[in-house]
From TrEMBL:
One of its GO terms (biological process) is methylation. CDD domains: AdoMet_MTases. This is 3-demethylubiquinone-9 3-methyltransferase, putative. The keyword Secreted does not apply. It holds the Pfam family Methyltransf_11. It comes from Nitrococcus mobilis Nb-231. GO terms for molecular function: S-adenosylmethionine-dependent methyltransferase activity. Keywords: Methyltransferase, Transferase, Ubiquinone.
Length: 243
């Protein structure tokens, strides 16, 4: 059953992100992650990342963590886009480099022509949107043929999240974050014209359980589909546009 999303949900997130951008100076806090959570996400992405050829777009770049990671890995040019101007200012300040560009904008109305980016990524955004259809349409539109689209979400199938969501509904609490179904997001990518869309599970333990985090990565828990689907806090999807 689709989750009920109140109208103010997106507005609340937008003002929260702007406040994070004004108040904090670290990548993780500007994005609203824990330091260990951001490090785990970045490791998961870098472990899967192959070639960084061509121009990249980071849609919802926050403090620019992935913009800098792509630049370090040799991407030709990287654009960081976010609707939080205070976060963009911090990102720019923290990132010297002339082959990087920062833009204010909404990920659902990207200010670019079609098929201009070699690859695009969009991390940490789906949980703050009421729905993903417009976002997926835009990410696929601006990607060149044979380019990659990377997107993540907070796993709706995670047992912990399912329990939290149930308690929230029983107590009639307003929705805090939107959990997403990895299968549904994959379906949206395929429906928008991608030929491949592979789900990767990302188990993320709280900051105080970093030993468990290391153990789960050593055991490659994320690659055990049965366990990973119900235990992973997050997932990421790597999709490709046809040639
Ligand atoms: C959780 S942070 C993630 C930042 C970074 N991508 C990362 O993964 O560390 C989400 C970012 O997306 C931005 N964002 C959320 N919704 C957006 C939208 N509709 N348009 C543009 N940016 C958006 C927020 O301002 C915030 O900087």
């Amino acid at each position: 059953m689709p989750q009920e999303v109140p109208n103010e949900f997106e507005l609340r997130w937008r003002s929260r992100f702007e406040r994070f951008g004004e108040s904090y100076d670290s990548d993780a806090l500007i994005a609203g992650w824990s330091a260990s959570g951001l490090a785990t996400r970045l490791r998961a992405f870098e472990a899967l990342l192959g070639t960084t050829d061509g121009e990249w777009l980071d849609a919802g770049c926050g403090a620019g963590t992935y913009v800098r990671a792509l630049y370090r890995q040799g991407a030709e040019r990287v654009y960081g886009l976010d609707y939080s101007v205070p976060s963009l200012k911090k990102a720019k300040h923290m990132t010297p480099g002339s082959t990087l560009a920062w833009l204010a904008g909404d990920v659902r109305r990207l200010p670019f022509r079609s098929a201009v980016f070699g690859s695009v990524l969009c991390f940490g955004v789906t949980q703050a949107l009421a729905g993903c259809e417009a976002l997926i349409g835009e990410l696929v539109r601006v990607t060149r043929p044979a380019g990659e689209i990377w997107i993540d979400g907070l796993n709706r199938g995670c047992l912990l999240h399912a329990g939290e969501a149930l308690i929230g509904r029983v107590r009639q609490q307003p929705l805090r974050v939107r959990y997403e179904s990895a299968a549904r997001l994959r379906h949206l990518l395929l429906a928008a014209g991608c030929t491949q869309a592979r789900i990767h599970w990302v188990p993320i333990f709280p900051q105080r359980f970093q030993r468990l985090q290391r153990l789960s990565e050593w055991m490659r828990l994320g690659r055990m589909p049965g366990f990973a689907r119900v235990l992973s806090h997050a997932f990421l999807i790597r999709a490709r546009k046809p040639c």
